[in-house]
Amino acid sequence: MSTASRKGIYAGCYWTGITMTLVCLALILASNTELGYWYEHSPFALSWAFGGFAILAFLAAEFYAPAASSGTRAADESSQPVLEEELVEV
């Protein structure tokens, strides 16, 4: 899978998670109204469904998150500790 494709899936899942989280919070706040009462006081509250979907969207976003470039890994691996004998005092 190409990096551009992974970034697109990551962004879609991330923003879906953000949206579902906001909908979940809005449903919780609306549960005190007459209309929201019917959705929140059912056997399975609608806010729980949106919250669970948000969690799954965030997990999918983490799965499709683009990995760090190999150039930074190579720079980290090539750095070697310097021995005290090799240090020169000025």
Short summary:
The chain has helices at about 5-30, 35-40, 45-65, 70-80.
Task: Give a verbal description of the structure.
The protein has 90 residues and is an all-alpha fold. The chain has a domain at 3-64. 69% of the residues lie in helices and 0% in strands. It has four helices and no strands. The protein has helices at residues 3-30, 34-40, 46-63, 70-78. The model has no long low-confidence stretch (mean pLDDT 80).
Give the helix/strand layout.
Layout: H1 3-30, H2 34-40, H3 46-63, H4 70-78
Helix pairs in contact: 1-2, 1-3
Tags for this model:
single chain, mainly alpha, 90 residues
The coarse silhouette is elongated
Helical content (DSSP H or I, runs of 4+): 55-70%
Radius of gyration: 24 Å
Counting DSSP E segments of at least 2 residues, the number of strands comes to 0
The major β-sheet equals: none
How far the N terminus sits from the C terminus, by CA atoms, comes to: 52 Å
Our count of helices gives: 4
The H-and-E topology, N to C, reads as HHHH
Strand residue content: under 5%
Q: Detail the poorly predicted runs.
A: none
Average pLDDT rating: 80
**Protein structure class:** mainly alpha
